[in-house]
Structures are given as structure tokens and as C-alpha cells.
Amino acid sequence: MSEMMLVVEIAGRRAGVPALVVNSVIELDSVTPVPRAAPHIAGLGALRSRPLTVIDCRTALGAPPCENAAARRAVVVEHGGHLYGLLVDAADDIVVTLADPEPIGSDPGAGWSRVASSKIETETGPLLLLDLAALIAGPDCSLAA
Amino acid sequence: MDDLLTEFVAETREMLAALASEVVAWEADPDDRVRLDTIFRFVHTVKGNCGFFDFPRLEALSHAAEDALADVRAGRRTADRALVNAVLAVLDRIGVMIGEIERGEPQSDGDDERLISALAGELDEGELPIPSTAHAAATPAEQRTIRLPVELIDQVMSGVSEMVLARNDLDRRILAMGGDTGLEAPFARLSALIAEVRDAITRTRMRRIEGLFSTFPRLVRDLSAELGKQVFVELENGEVELDREMIELVRDPLVHIIRNAVDHGIEAPADRRAAGKREAGMLTVSARQTGNTIHIGIMDDGRGIDCERLAAKAIAAGLRSEAEIAALNRQELIALVFEPGLTTAETVTAISGRGVGMDVVRANIEKFGGQLEIESTPGEGSRFLISVPLTLSILPSLTVAVAGQTFAIPRSYVEEIVSTSGSEVEFAQVGERRYMTFRDRRLPCVSLGQSLGIERSDAARSLFVMLRLGWGDLYALAVDEIFDHDELVIKPLSPAIMQSGLFVGSTQLDDGTPVLVLDVAAIGYGAGIPRELHRPAIAANAAAPVEREGLRVVLLRALDGEQRAVAMKAVEQVERVSATAVRHPGPEAQVVLGEDILPLAGIPEGTELPEWLTVLRLSDGEERIAYAAREVLDIVVLPATLSRIQGQAGIAGVTLVDGEVAELVDCHALFARHARPASARTLTCKLADDDGWMHNFLGPIIEAAGYQIVGGDAQADIAFVDAASADGSPGDARKEICLSDQPSGGGPGHAIYRYDRAALMAALLRVGEELAA
Asked: Given Cys at both, which of B422, B506, B640, B715 links B548, Cβ 3.0 to 4.6 Å?
């Protein structure tokens, strides 16, 4: 069972997002802050005319925010009928999976265990598979949105 | 109604066109069940619609066809040639009639009897009307509408939105290139075209809610007549546009709530009087748009929801235990109406209470993503708020900024923008709450920056947006800057952002910057502004039984060219008079009307009189005044509330009639200025019958002073008698003034010299005061 995986880098770690759910990868130029939103909601952006809820993946993982503020690369995914832009450090590689997802096994670390429920073997080694719902829900909610 | 009719015609035509092939196939094979069902459905639909529109002939025809086809479907009859022919003839005739309806022609009085009896199988084959295609050919199916799947329109709409953004991007780039690029003209043309397409595509899905609202006054009238109640309906903001699918979806819930309000909410006239309310109940149906939500409010000033009875019923029905009920607050008690099978109605009436409860209504609203909220104050009324989403909406908005960030406010909430840099506004601080006094109202102020948590200090702001919420609650929202009115395309927000409850959607400015649309109701109530029913309290109702259904007025074109309105009740008569009948044109003008000379108002100083003018004879029941006009335009009903203007004498208020300003003439001021004092009016004087001097010399000056001369045996207040002939008794008059032809001192002690005018007037006044006392 081979599938395409977009490899993203968050806080120095690599993870995979199934290429099928990725709408596009864009450079966000303007993000409007949203008052009284959860900390991991970086704001509101736009993919052409559609609103984009921008998720800061570092904050969602509980990692310190990226120091390089210019890095505004976002992976656009659709979830529950809405578009989300996942701010990542890098997203420039697509790999082919070699097997079905499997349990992670050993604990990948606090933030990661919440946003990734399985890992997958690819041609370049194992990748954590990001759970979009958990990522979007953020660290404060245990329930997926 | 026109819209509905157009739709009916279009729909029927469309079905007829689709049926054409079915009919032919059915004729070939009358046993074809599927075709039979299709035709049956068509006549059934037509019949249903006709009942709604009152086309009795069409209805009778489709009804007969439906009956015949129902028999065939039920196997009671076989579809023989005669029946098929008759049905075909009916279809043709329906086509002809639809054509007539479409062209607005009166329905021709065709003879349908033969057709109907043919359908019933009562005619021999020979007598059958021959179906012909001539009719169908004669009335070409003018296909003026098409039906499209909504998804397709959505797709086009979103494509157009993208085009707008691409255009804006292009615009920026052209500007950046500077100078003359030669692209300006084609670009301007492109922009105009995109705007046009965008407008058109937006309109395709939207329809004014007015069409739905306009059926309510009739509904309420019928219901209240049936129940022996009096209910006025006030419709507000019918121009709010709603997705046409959504209009259909909210129709039933709205009708249900209105039925309930009239039946259970509004009391019988006697009960209302006893409660100190005016006899006629008031039902307000209003619509407002926020983001992609339309709020429809239904308010009545009836008895409110009886929570105790509701609680008792809930306990009796075993839905709640007494302990559970005791723990509920009023709002939670009200929510009990949503429990299945619970109603406070004592009796099941024909109008409501037929087992379809509020639970079903709410479920139906929620089914399409809406919400139903109820608020109720015992004795004062209830309000129902239906909020329904608008999947696709262009929102007229006001863009504002606070702490450097731009937000949009739906314009339907915006009452007014106030800058307090002028001095007309006063502030009051009550605890942490600031109030501003504006136009005699004290409004709570809410700082947008603080509500959003993007600003800590409460900087003294001078810019406020007055917001009126769905219930009529008003507050002032302090902002840093106000930019512009914009027509913005609202997009839904993701749940992650909606969580805060402060926003209803997002939109993009022309440069593509995302902007959040504020939920001003949540912000206001979140900041603790009071929820009030906006109608005056009961006591105020009793004190001022003002008819709120609006004032019926005569609309006229005044001599100075202004459009004015005079209360219909004050107008006694309207006449045309020649300018020669007007004396002393100007503020003191008089006019001769038949046998009367009346003060004539409405002639400003220096007005050139037309040769003929229209004069309205106004009366306050006793006194009469004439009002000059160029012409009478119309009789209309003014809205219940008028804008007051100050400083203009003689004008009670202004309003708009057909887009033109109309000034309501202040009848009170008019009569106060022109009418004679009331105290003198009531007094009558009697002159000695045979005294020529009194009648010829005294009579006119007494009348001019405002007294009325009576003769003969009539009862008078004051009698004038000649001292020489006086017998010392006042006769049948209550008071007597004695006149003497001798200068002072010459006559009897109490007599007045008859040419001493001052003494005469003084005596009249004195006597008048004695009488009044």
C-alpha cells in the first residue's frame, strides 16, 4: 500500500501529512490576529477568497514559537469543511510510503504523542503521521474539533 | 404575491412542457403506471396551487382530473380512450389558462362543464371535446425562467469572488508600474464587468423576506378575528434579503409561532384592559442580518409565558420532579416549552395546541442549522428569536478599527455613528460602567478593545457606534476609527475561531486582507448591557394610549411647494376656492368658504397665490380653521413613529412618503394660534328683541369679541338690557348687563353708558368670569 506523504518539519522534527488531504502549500503574507482565540490559533489568513484558520503547529505541540518570524510556510488542509493553514518550519519533500500506518510504539514525547497517533514507514525512514483534528484542536482541548 | 404568481406560472409551464412527451406516451399506452403517476402529480400540484391563488376555474378543472386519475390509480376505472382524451383536453386548457394568467388577462369564461363530465365518464365518446395541439401552439411556452442546482450557483459565486480578488491584485500591480501603461481603459472595463456579474449572481439566490412577511398581517387578522381579539402587526426590516431556500424553510416555524402568539400570548381585549394595556395587542415581526445569520424576531405584548403553570404541567406530566423544578431559574423554566408534549394552553383550540409543540418547531429550525430562543416577561410579553444561517450572503457592513486592527460590523445593527468631540453628549460613570446620554436616552458604553481583550486601558474614546440589537436593546460601542461602508462577502469561520463566540464570520477587504465580522449581540450582552423589552412599560401604556398603527393623513402639496400631511381626523372638507376668496394673504389670512369666514393657515408671508387653491377645512370638533394648499395628493398612513424636528413652527414631525419628505402639520399649534379663546366661545348673549340700536350697533362688536348672539326665546348667558326699560330681573339669562343712554352718572348706578366701549368690554369680561366661577 503506497501513498504519497508530504514531509513537514515542526520544531526540528519531521512528520508526515497524507498528500491527498493537502490542498496546497503556500507562503502566507498576511495573517489577521483573532482576539480571544486559543493560543495556537495564529490568526486568520486567506487562500484566495477562502478564509484560512492559521494554526501555529509549534504552539499546538507545546514547543516554543519559531524565532524566525519570516517563516510563514503553511500547509493548507481541509478539515470539517473549513480550510486550515498549518504553519510549519518546512514542507518541501514528498515521499512514498512503504506500509500501512502502525502504532507508534515508544513515546515520541509530550506534544507529539497528542498530535500523532501512528507512524508510517516511508522510503526515507519512519515518519510520525500527524492527526489533523488533534493539531487543530490545540493543546487545551482533548477533543478533536 | 406577484413573485409567487410568477413562480406558479413558471412552474406550471415547466411541468406542462415536461409532460408533453409523457402525455403522448400515455396516450399510446394508457396502462403505463409511471406516466399516469406523473400526470396525476401534475394535476394534483396545480390543484393545490390554485386553491392558494384563488383560480376557481382552474382548480375545479384540475380537481376533476385528479379525481378521475385517482380512480384509475386505485383500479376503480380503466384508462380508456375517452378518459385519456379528456385528460389531454384538461392539460391543454390548463396551458391556455396559465397563458391568460401570465398575460394578466381576466380568466375567460370557458365552458368547463363538458370537460368535467367527460372526465367523470358521463359523456359518450362522440360528444368528447377533441384534444388538439392548436392551443399549445397558440400559446408558445415563454420559458422565462430556468431552474438551477444551488451548488452550481455557489460555484459561480465563488468563482466571481476569486475574480474580484484577481482584479484587485491586478489593480495593485498596474498602480505599482506607475505612469501610462495603456492598460487603464481595458482594466476599468473589466472591473465594471466583474462588478456587474457579481451583482447579478448574488441576486440569483437572494430574495427579500418581505414576500414572506407580507402574508402575516392577513394571517393575524384572520386569527384574531376568529378569536375575538385585536392584534396589530408591525413588520420591520422586510428588506433584509434571505436565501430563497431559507425563506421557505422558516415559513412554517414562523407561522406556528405567530399563531401561538395570537392564540396564547395576546389576551382577550377585556383581560388586556384589566391589566392596564390597550385593548389591541401588538405583534412585531422583524428581521436583521448579522454575518451569515438572519435573526427573525417575533414579539408580542401579551401575557408572557406562565412559568408556574408550565412547571406544574411538567411535574404533572412526570417530565420533571418538584425538586428539579425548584432548582430551575426563569430562563430554564421557559425552556420547558421545548419539552415534547407540554403546553400552557388550557384548551386545545383550532388555531394552535394541536399537538405540534414548540419542540417540533425548534427541531425544524435546528434541522437547517438555525436556533430558536425564547424570552418572556410575565404580563409584558414574549419574544421569540429565530436565527437562521445564510449560506451565501453579501453583508452590508461598517468597517471600524480598534488597537490597529480592522473589524466589520453588520450594518443592519448600526443605528447611528456618534462622535462626541462635539459637546452634546454627556457621560455618567456608574461603577465600572460608563453611560452616555444621547438624545434623551442613557446608553451603556462598551469598549470594543476591552471586549476583545486587545487593549487594556480604557482610553477616553470619542467615537461611538450606536448598535441596536435584535430585541431593540441599544448600546454604544467605542472604537478608534470608522472607515467605510462596504458590501462584504461573508465566509463562515472554522469552529476553532467561532469558539470565542465574538465573531460571526470573516470577510476580505478589497486588498485581500482577512477581516473578522463582529457578533455585536454577543459583545454587547457579554459586556453586560441590560436586556430590555423595548416597548414601554405597562404603566406607560396605560398613561398614553397612543394608537401605534400609524396616523391616517391627507397628503397635500403646500403653497410653498413642500409636501405636508394633515391628520385625516382633523379634515372636515376639501374645497377649491378662487384666490379672490382669500383676504389679507399672509399669516393673518382669512378665507370665505360658503357662509363662513375662517382663518386661513398655510400661507407664508409674501406668497404669490395661484388663481385657484385647494382649501382644507379643519376642525377640532368645535372650532374650524382652513388650510391652504396647491393640491391634495393622497391619503396615506404614516408610520407610527415620526422623526421629530425642532425649531420649525407648526410642524409636528417629518417622515418619508414615497421617498419624498412629508411634514406633518402640527394641528395643535395651528388651532392654538388661530382659534379663538375657548372661554369666550361658550358664552351667548341676548339682545333686547325690539332694540334696533342693540342689533345694529352693539351686536357686531359683541360678536367680534367672540360672543354669540342668540335671539328669540333661546337660553342665553348674558342679556343686554336698556336701563330705561329694565324691570330689574335678568329674565331667562344668567347675567345681565344694563346699558344706559346717559353718560356716566346720568343713569341708574349699575348701568353702563352705551358708548363707553371699554366699560362694556370690561363688564363682559367680568360677567364671563363670574359665570365661569
From this structure: B640
Query: In Å, how far is A67's CA from the nearest CA of chain B?
Result: 23
A49, A29 contact by CB (below 8 A): no
Query: What does residue B492 show for φ and ψ, rounded to 5 degrees?
Result: -65, 155
Query: Which of B14-28, B275-289, B738-752 shows the lowest mean pLDDT across its residues?
Result: B738-752
Q: Which of B161, B503, B515 sits opposite A49 (nearest CB)?
A: B161
* A32 has a chain B CB within 8 A of its CB: yes
Three-class SS state of B221 = helix
Q: In this structure, what C-alpha cell is assigned to residue B518?
A: 463582529
Across the range B123-143, mean pLDDT stands at 49
Q: Under a CB-based contact definition with an 8 Å cutoff, are residues B717 and B730 in contact?
A: no
Per mean pLDDT, which range of A43-47, A140-144, B520-524, B603-607 is the poorest?
A140-144
Taking CA–CA distances from A31, the nearest residue in chain B reads: B514
Residue B551 three-state SS: strand
Contact A53 B493 (CB under 8 A): yes
Q: What is the pLDDT of residues B521-577, one digit of tens each?
A: 788 878 887 755 333 333 333 333 333 456 777 788 888 888 888 887 777 777 777
Q: At B563, is the secondary structure helix, strand, or coil?
A: strand
Determine the Cα–Cα distance for residues B185 and B34; give it in Å rounded to an integer.
59
Q: Is the entire prediction scored with pTM above 0.90?
A: no
Nearby residues of B663 by Cβ (< 8 Å), 6 or more positions away: B562, B563, B564, B565, B648, B651, B653, B654
Between CA B249 and CA B253 the distance in angstroms is 8
Chain B residue numbers touching A53 (CB-CB < 8 A): 493-494, 496-497
Q: Is A39 on the interface with B (CB under 8 A)?
A: no
pLDDT tens, residue by residue, A22-34: 999 998 878 888 9
Q: How far apart are CA B661 and CA B431, in angstroms?
A: 44
> Which of A116-120, B317-321, B342-346, B352-356 bottoms out in mean pLDDT, i.e. has the lowest?
B352-356
Q: Hunting for cell 411556452 — which residue is that?
A: B141
Interface check B510 vs A, CB under 8 A: no
Q: What is the pLDDT of residue B540?
A: 32
Comparison of pLDDT for B175 and B356, the residue scoring more: B175
Band of pLDDT at residue B678, cut at 50, 70 and 90 = very low
Which H helix or E strand runs over A73? strand A73-79
pLDDT tens digits for B393-446? 566 788 999 888 999 988 777 888 888 776 567 788 777 778 888 777 788 888
Give CA separation, B288 vs B208, B238, B285, B485, B521, in Å.
12, 9, 10, 17, 12
Name the DSSP class of B411.
Answer: G
Q: Please, are residues B320 and B314 in contact by the beta-carbon 8 Å criterion?
A: yes
Burial of B476 (0-12, 13-18, 19+ CB in 10 A): buried
- A88 closest CA partner among A73, A76, A77, A78: A73
Which residues of chain B does A83 touch, with a Cβ-Cβ cutoff of 8 Å? 494
According to DSSP, the residues that pair with B551 across neighbouring strands are: B638
Q: Do A49 and B162 touch (CB under 8 A)?
A: yes
Note whether B489 contacts A49, CB cutoff 8 Å.
Answer: yes
Comparing C-alpha atoms, which of B709, B696, B693 is closest to residue B764? B709
CA torsion angle for B450, B451, B454, B456 (degrees, to 10)?
20
User: Residue A49: its chain B contacts at CB < 8 A?
Assistant: 158, 161-162, 164-165, 489, 491, 508
Q: Is A49 part of the contact surface with chain B (CB cutoff 8 Å)?
A: yes
Which of B405, B542, B530, B560 minimizes the C-alpha distance to B479? B405
How many CA atoms lie within 13 Å of B287's alpha carbon, on the beta-carbon side? 23
Query: What pLDDT, on the 0 to 100 scale, is given for residue B545?
Result: 36
Within an 8 Å CB–CB cutoff, is residue A44 touching chain B?
yes
